[in-house]
Amino acid sequence: MTGLSSLLQSATTLLALLSSARAAPTLQLNKRAVAFDYNGDKVRGVNLGGWFVLEPWITPSIFDEWATSHTVVDEYTYTKTLGKAEASSRLSNHWNTWITQGDFNDIAQAGLNHVRIPIGYWAVAPLDGDPYVQGQLDVLDKAIGWARAAGLKVMLDLHGAPGSQNGFDNSGRYGSVGWQQGDTVAQTLTALQNLANRYKGDTDVVTAIELLNEPLGPVLDLAGVQDFYNKGYDTVKSASSDFAVTFHDAFQDFSTYWTGFGSGKSDLMLDTHQYQIFSPAEVGRSPSDHVSAACALGPKLAGTNKWTIVGEWTGAQTDCAKWLNGLGKGARYDGSFPDSSYTGSCDGKYTGTVAGLSADDKNNIRSYVEAQLDAYEQHTGWIFWTWKTESAPEWHLKDLIAQGLFPQPLNSRQHPGQCG
Length: 420
Description:
By secondary structure, this protein is α/β, with parallel strands linked by helices. It has helices at about 1-30, 75-80, 85-95, 100-110, 120-125, 135-150, 185-200, 220-240, 280-285, 285-300, 360-375, 395-400, and strands at about 45, 115-120, 155-160, 205-210, 245-250, 270-275, 305-310, 380-385. Strands 1-2-3-4-5-6-7-8 form an 8-stranded parallel beta barrel. Strand 7, helix 11 and strand 8 form a beta-alpha-beta unit. Helix 4 packs parallel to helix 6 (about 135-150), helix 7 (about 185-200) runs parallel beside helix 8 and helix 10 runs parallel beside helix 11 (about 360-375). The chain is globular and about 50 Å long. About 45% of the residues are buried.
């Protein structure tokens, strides 16, 4: 019996070893389920702004008929003023023409690997009484296929929440911040659930979902924002464990405020947006000061304890672009914005083309872009805002590339060593 017991014990041990050996690869696959290596590869991407969420400064032609009255300033007032039938007709045309498969191919050809696609809650979880119209998702479905064909990864970004999370026109509704009031947080979670469920079968392409763009932390309950992020994370991950989950820094110091958040959560990505143009002090910086400020971000990004991307940034050193600060509003740079003073002229930057920029502007943009690339790649990477605009040259990545103001290939440098 002793010999038989020994034999049975050996057999049991061998079976256990074989079982664990078979199980090991499965565990590894589950652990590495997100279809982009955010640990080892750099995110190099571009936002597709002004597509499914209107922004007057990106496509001023859509808003031109209200340029004098200022009665339409965002997608909410646009759809409310036109009514559903006319708004649907106009927006359907816009959705099907502003970004096409050719754009995805061009983005990949430029060496980029990600697109971030803003979408409003009203596309996935419309509310009774809202004027917004639907139909965006049919085009977004096609876009996922275009991204797949081009070899690009997609971050879906919930850019507008019920009530507005920041009061910016790019939330869908300009004005007061109504998010966190009433049922708005629960409604936002429903939007995330619907978005994640729709694309849970496309995680080979849709590698990340951003819970909410730019919640205005200084006027919100930050504990409530964190609670929403925790619930949003669970909502997205319950649809598919293969999604990474992105959250915005809510305009808190990205290098310190969020360090303790998300302990024990896998595939969590912090998003910070870095612009140097939305205060008089920032637009007053010299070109070399802009470069220094960008370079200083590199070590701060590298020091965070989770994946961290700069999910929005620009080549602009001014806020000159027509309606950038809101329809009918001026610029801090030339002193036409309230409580600002003159720094310089907006000639060629209010509206214009990249080709039409001055030689100094071109050199300054190229230098500033290179510094930001060098800084932001010290951690997870970057997503430029935005792929195209109708008339804002400092922001128009497609044309910045075509005119040699954005490196091609991405690692080429005309101003090497700016960040030391």
